[in-house]
Amino acid sequence: MATASQQNESLMDAVKRDHAEISSYYHEYRKSGANLDAKERWANQLIWEIARHAAGEEIVVYPLFEKHLGQQGHDMAERDRRDHQAVKDRLYRLEKMSVGSGDYDQLMDETMSVLDEHVKTEESHDLPLLEQQLGTEKSKSEAVSFRRTKQFVPTRPHPRAPTKPPFETVVGLLTAPLDKLKDAFSKFPTEEMLEQAKKEQSLPSK
Question: What is the pTM of this model?
Answer without folding.
Answer: 0.88
